[in-house]
Amino acid sequence: TRVRSSAASDVYKRQEVKASGCAGAILRCGYGDDIASQDDKQWIRNLSECERLGIPVGAYLYSYATSDRQAQSELDHILRLIKGHTFQLPIFLDVEELGTQHYAPRCCEIVCEGLKANGYVPGIYASLSWFNGYLGTVRGKYIEWMARYKNLPEDTYNGQYAIWQYSSDGQVDGVSAVSYTHLTLPTILRV
């Protein structure tokens, strides 16, 4: 089980999370443009606790970009917040905002290539319908974290993915809101 975190969730009791056997956490660092008010309010605390307790960690930023300028600002936002930290899991761009779907492939390229150029492993978070309907030109280029709340992938899907999110209402000690995932990362990514 991996924990997906954002300020919308309660602050984690990280000691309880670690004791529960949770394999890692992908924390929201922020959303949108590189503006301090759009940093996730719990980012620093949750990241510090993961680092202190040795919980493997990755990050994601929720995207609103509809232009190259905004995509570059989102890349700058991520880089500002992750600078000086070590990540065992990828850094994801979360693309699911209505109205951004036609620009999303270009945004993914700008952000993911920028992350790669700075030494990070980039990934894309989206629903299966977004991957199939809008993100075809970037499929297979980056780590894919797919959200589809229907069974496990072996029951419903034969395509590629590294992380399959199949629930948003899981339970792990120390966290009030958990997204359950099925992982194949260890077989395709050495972190």
Q: What ranges have pLDDT less than 50 throughout 5 or more consecutive residues?
A: 1-12, 174-182, 184-191
Give the averaged pLDDT, no decimals: 81
Q: Write down the Rg.
A: 15 Å
Q: Whole-Å distance between the termini?
A: 17 Å
The total count of helices amounts to 7
Q: What share of the residues lie within helices? A: 25-40%
Layout of secondary structure:
Blueprint: E1 2-5, H1 14-19, E2 24-31, H2 43-53, E3 57-62, H3 68-82, E4 91-94, H4 104-117, E5 122-127, H5 128-133, E6 143-147, H6 153-156, E7 163-172, E8 175-183, H7 185-188
Parallel strand pairs: 1-2, 2-3, 3-4, 4-5, 5-6, 6-7
Antiparallel strand pairs: 7-8
Helix pairs in contact: 3-4
Task: Note down, in words, how this protein is organized.
Helices cover 31% and strands 27% of the residues. The chain has helices at 14-19, 43-53, 68-82, 104-117, 128-133, 153-156, 185-188; strands spanning 2-5, 24-31, 57-62, 91-94, 122-127, 143-147, 163-172, 175-183. An 8-stranded mixed sheet has the order 1-2-3-4-5-6-7-8. It is globular. Mean pLDDT is 81; it is low at 1-12, 174-182 and 184-191.
